[in-house]
Amino acid sequence: MDGTLLLLAVIVVLAVAVAYMAGRRASGESGDSLKRIIELSGRMQSSESSLNERLEALTKRLGDGLVQQTEKTGEKLKDLSERLAVIDAAQKNIADLGKEMVGLQDILSNKQARGAFGEFQMEALIKDALPPSAYAFQATLSNGTRVDCLIRLPGPPGIIPIDSKFPLEAYRAIQRAETETDKKNANRDFSKDVGTHIKHIAERYIIRNETDWAIMFLPSEAIFAELNTNFANMVEEAYRRRVGFASPSTLMALVNTIGSILKDGQMKEQAGLIQNQVGLMLNDVRLLDERVGKLKAHFRQASEDIEGISISSGKITDRGQKIEDVQLDEEETAPELDTKPDPPREAPEPRLKEV
User: Fold this and answer.
1) Distance (Å, whole) CA 72 – CA 146
2) For the chain, does the N or the C end have fewer beta carbons within 10 angstroms?
3) Prediction pTM value
4) Are residues 221 and 172 in the same domain?
């Protein structure tokens, strides 16, 4: 398309040149003008070739640029798609978490479900830190009462009952109180609720010669902090009745300490067993030494017996030889035989009875 336009431009220029030559024919300059027109036509053809080359180079550069830009755009779109997928997953997790929060609120609003939630949290903490032999859930004491958990320790303090309580409604009333009157009433209700739990635990789980202390497990760190910060009278009352409070964090520290105590007791028990076995082994070594001494005495006696047998055998041989040398001729005198008896042998040492 560009070459055709250029050709038309050349034709127009030639037409103009011809007209110019016709107008200047009278002046005698037609030859020079024709020469210039021919030179101009050659230059225009050269410019057309150069222009075509430049257009091709420009087209190639534009094509390469478009390809690169398309690839980069594709990569950006891919990254954007991945990020959108992550955002969708995060939104789904947020929605699921919202549902779980609603479910947790439903659980906490029901007293029985709230109690089960506290027991489940307590059981999870104890199972993670103690061996199965150190605890029992829903155990029965000697007075027939059943406790949520019973921790077994060697020696004093012995067994420790743990009961889960969750005074959430009274605590929420304190948080919602706006006036001094509302706050005073909420504090009174909270003290009454906690005091009832303390009395219940002390009367049911503190048994003479069986349990010295009991623990009230509070599944909320906020309630535990509120109780220890603003209700010192309740803490003193619980201490007087030999009842302690524990939150999830303090119960975790407690059971970890108990686990260390149990491990130390097991190590001491194993050390005692090792010492006992070492004592038995030393006694076996002593018996072995005695038996080796007896065996040496037997060997010594056997050696002496063998030596005596050898002496007797030699004498028997000598006497047999003398008997062979005896002449039976009457004229010759018989050689004197050795009639001396063998010297008495020493009595053998008494053999010791095998142990």
Assistant:
1) 71
2) N
3) 0.48
4) yes
Is residue 226 located within the same domain as residue 250? Answer: yes
pLDDT in tens, the chain (355 residues): 455 555 556 566 666 566 656 555 544 554 565 566 666 666 666 666 777 777 777 777 877 777 787 788 878 878 877 887 788 777 777 756 655 544 445 545 556 666 677 788 888 888 888 888 888 998 888 888 999 899 888 766 778 899 988 888 888 888 888 888 888 998 999 999 999 999 999 999 998 888 888 999 998 888 898 988 899 899 999 999 999 999 988 988 888 888 877 777 667 777 777 778 888 888 888 888 888 888 888 888 888 888 888 888 878 888 777 787 765 554 445 455 555 555 555 544 544 444 3
Q: Report if residue 137 sits inside a domain.
A: yes
How many domains does the chain fold into? 2
Q: How far apart are CA 346 and CA 351, in angstroms?
A: 15
> Strand, helix or coil at 157?
coil
Is residue 136 exposed (0-12), middle (13-18) or buried (19+ Cβ within 10 Å)? middle
Q: Are residues 100 and 172 in the same domain?
A: no
Range of the domain at 158: 112-266
- Token pair, residue 53, equals 């080359």
- CB 327, CB 334: distance < 8 Å: yes
Q: Which of 2, 17, 90, 6 is nearest to 45 (CA)?
A: 6
Given 250, 266, 282, which residue is the final one in a domain?
A: 266
Contact indicator for 163, 179 with CB cutoff of 8 Å: no
Residue 271 located in a structural domain: no
Residue where a domain terminates, one of 266, 286, 313 = 266
